[in-house]
Amino acid sequence: FGIATDENFVITTTSRKEITEDNFSELVQDGVTLYLLQSVDQELLSATKERIDFLPHYDTLVKSGMYEYYASEGQNPLPFALAELVDNSLSATSRNTGIRSIEIKLLFDDSQGKPAVAVLDNGRGMTSKQLKNWAVYRLSKFIRQDDFESDHSGYVRPLPVPRSLNSDISYFGVGGKQAVFFVGQSARMISKPAESQDVHELVLSKEDF
């Protein structure tokens, strides 16, 4: 790497956790992306990319094509799909101590690209690992295994109340990706963890699949 013998450096995960002798076996695993930096807080000079390889959760095969997911109770399917997207923001902002902001934008300006639905919030954000876990199909925020870092760390399910901004409006809890591809052809998730200076971006494209 061209490092001089008298030069200091650190190796970190993409979540800026420094690799040490004590945590090496825990943090360094097959396929993990690492940063070689002069310091943990060093600003990245350019955007970085990492490829995500995963097999769909088995429920994708055994429960695929569930028409009831969108047409449950004979309702119009579009609100169900939008509810899934908003539900992510409700979870992300559930512990905000200040203003809780969630915006839904419908973009139809052809000069800015293809039409899109954008959901923006000021929640706590996701690390790169949490963002990768969000990409795994049928991996519910309520049934994630212990070896996965939940995409809603510390999330506390609200008390059952009429569907509102203080409750889970999603009836299903597992359909964020399906909702995206019901509405459109690709998903772009951009997130900055509150405690980090790095912005993480994930793109899922039907064309790429």
TrEMBL record:
<dbReference type="Pfam" id="PF13589">
    <property type="entry name" value="HATPase_c_3"/>
</dbReference>
<dbReference type="GO" id="GO:0006302">
    <property type="term" value="P:double-strand break repair"/>
</dbReference>
<dbReference type="InterPro" id="IPR036890">
    <property type="entry name" value="HATPase_C_sf"/>
</dbReference>
<protein>
    <submittedName>
        <fullName>SMHD1 protein</fullName>
    </submittedName>
</protein>
<dbReference type="InterPro" id="IPR038892">
    <property type="entry name" value="SMCHD1"/>
</dbReference>
